[in-house]
Design a protein that fits this description.
Elements (H helix, E strand, L loop, with lengths): L17 H31 L6 H19 L6 H25 L1 H27 L2
Length: 134
Amino acid sequence: MHPEPYTELPPFLQPFPYSLFIYLSGAFEIEVFYRLIPITIMAILGKKLFSGRYFDLFLWIGIIASSLREPLEQWPAGHPAFIFYAVFSGLLMNLTQGICFFRYGFMAAFTLRLGHYIIWHILLGMYVQYFELS
């Protein structure tokens, strides 16, 4: 969706090697504040309230609410089809991470996000920086 050549790094890319540090720390921060804290709080509430009868409900509310946070915070502008794609794909990615967090732990969700960042932000940034801008 980027027809013209780059004249500078777009805002979602950072120069290498700075991008390694910013996206590694960013992935950690996002996973702590978007998944670890909210889903854990909801899981604890689900266990403690009502003798754990509504644990699954509390858990899914936590996963869905934390999955909606990022797409809503990064609401794009543009054509409605693009907005739908951006919000829907962000929601699916975050739902996948929420499920991975619950089933496999924090490192699974963190690794999934870090893999996404390596491809989308770090490697793409290196390509733009060293091939398109040079």
